[in-house]
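Example for tutorial group B:
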């Protein structure tokens, strides 16, 4: 009888959590449209970054777009102008920068503020994806992932924070938006460098929210599931590369599994306008995050089954180098300064 009561009580708690979360999602408040907002988006030349730029442009915002490739940034500005989201090229400032370098992140923020006078919304969106089994992932893959997915956001946030804290309250609350991933809540196999870096970003973003909310800066952690951003074409694959690319591309392009980038941008825009602390995108991501929190052992067991039954075996040729790589790396010192550039 006690076990039955305990089970019923647990079920009631879980049901209450789900109902509260659903109600919060549906009643997040009306969307605020603020003309003249200054929005800085890293990784703003394509994919989700470009979709966010278009969404904010339609709301009347002025944009600062940062990415490594100036030609891609220029093409992004043409896309925004061609769709009528913004009237003047002067309202879209393009700044090529490698944000794994702290000095370039500082340059980005200083240039943006020098041009527009302030920043209202900082969106840390720059990221890379490493796909392959752990036996074939070199230490360099983890360094690349941490450099771009975590340290680039850290450098940019630290450069912007003094300005955001001194910002005139007449412009309303400032916002920092960290585009993390469901991979920062749930450890997906064959993506360990990506997962490790996104877990780090989620922790940093949640802690940042706790420290800055009462100071007039809202921090929103975004944990999307799969999105049709085209990012699979730019991912770095290891192991049996063709098989790894095949499964990841299929998952990233399937409409039922992956959200459209435009829908994701709309969800993020609304969440930031409402001052949300965190959102997940796609029902699968929402469910995975909750199950991982409530039943971590079950989640890890299911992930191990997926790895065993669905994902490719490691490449034997690359496995032979793993032990040597780990032995060499054991004598290295990890530098938390500017990380290696993406290859």
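The residue assignment follows.
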């Amino acid at each position: 009888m006690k076990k039955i009561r305990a089970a019923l009580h647990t079920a009631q708690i879980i049901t209450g959590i789900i109902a509260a979360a659903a109600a919060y999602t549906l009643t997040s408040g009306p969307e605020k449209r603020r003309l003249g907002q200054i929005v800085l988006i890293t990784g703003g030349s394509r994919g989700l970054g470009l979709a966010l730029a278009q969404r904010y442009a339609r709301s009347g915002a002025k944009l600062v777009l940062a990415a490594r490739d100036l030609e891609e940034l220029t093409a992004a500005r043409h896309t925004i102008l061609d769709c009528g989201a913004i009237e003047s090229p002067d309202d879209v400032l393009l700044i090529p920068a490698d944000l794994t370098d702290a000095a370039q992140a500082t340059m980005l923020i200083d240039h943006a503020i020098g041009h527009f006078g302030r920043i209202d919304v900082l969106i840390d969106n720059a990221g890379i994806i490493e796909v392959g089994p752990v036996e074939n992932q070199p230490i360099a893959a983890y360094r690349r992932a941490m450099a771009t997915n975590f340290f680039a956001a850290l450098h940019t946030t630290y450069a912007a924070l003094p300005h955001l804290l001194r910002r005139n309250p007449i412009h309303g609350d400032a916002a920092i938006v960290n585009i993390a991933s469901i991979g920062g809540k749930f450890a997906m196999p064959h993506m360990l460098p990506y997962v490790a870096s996104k877990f780090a970003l989620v922790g940093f973003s949640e802690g940042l929210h706790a420290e800055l909310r009462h100071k007039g800066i809202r921090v929103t952690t975004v944990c999307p599931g799969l999105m049709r951003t085209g990012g699979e074409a730019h991912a770095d694959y290891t192991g049996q590369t063709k098989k790894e690319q095949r499964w990841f591309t299929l998952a990233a392009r399937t409409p039922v599994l992956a959200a459209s980038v435009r829908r994701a941008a709309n969800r993020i825009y609304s969440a930031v306008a409402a001052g949300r602390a965190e959102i997940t995108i796609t029902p699968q991501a929402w469910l995975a995050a909750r199950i991982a929190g409530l039943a971590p052992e079950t989640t890890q067991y299911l992930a191990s089954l997926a790895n065993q039954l669905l994902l490719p075996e490691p490449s034997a040729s690359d496995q032979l180098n793993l032990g040597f790589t780990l032995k060499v790396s054991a004598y290295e010192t990890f530098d938390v300064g500017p990380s290696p550039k993406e290859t």
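Residues 193 and 220 are 23 Å apart (CA to CA). Compare this with the pattern of hydrophobic and polar residues in the output above.
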